[in-house]
Structure formats: structure tokens, C-alpha cells
Amino acid sequence: MINKKIQNAIDEQINAEIWSAYLYLSMSAYFEKENLRGFANWMKIQYQEEITHAMKFFDYVHSMGGHVSLKPIAAVQTEWKNPTDAFKDTLAHEKVVTSLINNLANLAVEEKDHATLNMLQWYINEQIEEESNAEQILAELKLIGDNGYGLLMKDKELALRVFVDPTKTPIA
Ligand code: OFO
Hints:
binds hydroxy diiron-OXO moiety
């Protein structure tokens, strides 16, 4: 049975993961509007990944005999200055999520909840990838600068991303 403190903290994290999904779907809509369909595709897949992150927590709580209480989803930004601006926000947001996961792990240690701590290892690894993906694209966008051709090339590359459920991949 999952303890109340951990249950509440995971409910908050489910909300943060679904908010992340909503944020990236909003970015996808922004890129569609800018005719950058590859970037829009990348963000749509990011949205799908975030839903899997939320669902992994959701299923964990129920497998431990708990009961999830879903919270309201706050509004997200809908406009960005340019792709670099959107990826700066993506990286900043992923850093916040990493700190939320670390806080959850700290709570699991305090509560001596080893099952939850073990489950969180997957998220700790996943956040390394989340930050590194955003960091890489941001660095490339900085190199591209105002070069429209460079941006279109990047757009074509990001169009190739396909969805692979990350929760089905064992931790490295
Ligand atoms: Fe769920 O990792 Fe991004 O936010």
C-alpha cells in the first residue's frame, strides 16, 4: 500500500507530466502555424512521450493499491518569438521536471519507500535524455541563427522523428 505523502506527491507529478504534454502540444501548434512541420512533428511526439510518463505514474499508483486524484491543468503559453525561443523554454522546463523528479526521489528516501525509489530510477534516467535532446537542438538552432536554409534542413530532420513508447524501454 502506498503512503499518503507519496500518493499526493505522485498526483502532483502526474499533473506536471500532463502539463508538459499540453505545453509541447501547444508548441506543436505554434510550429504548424509557422509552417515548420518537422518541428511540429517533433513536438507532437514529445507530447505523446509526456503522456506515457504520466501514465507510468498512474499505473504505478494503482498497482500499489493507491488511487490517483487528477488535478486541474493550468493554461500554457501559445506563442514564441522563434524556434530558438521555444527550445530555450523546452530546456528550462525539462530542468524543472528533473528537479521535481529528484524531489520525489528525496521524499521516497525520507519515507523509506524503496519500491517508489526503484520505480523513480527510470525517470531519473529518462530526464538525462530529455535534457540532452533539448540541449542538442537548442545548440544547433543557435548555430543556424537567421539562416533560413539551415532552419529548413533542421525541419526536414525533425520530421523523421517517430514515436517509440519510452516506458517500454528498459533502463540503460
Ligand atoms: Fe516527462 O519529461 Fe519532459 O517534461
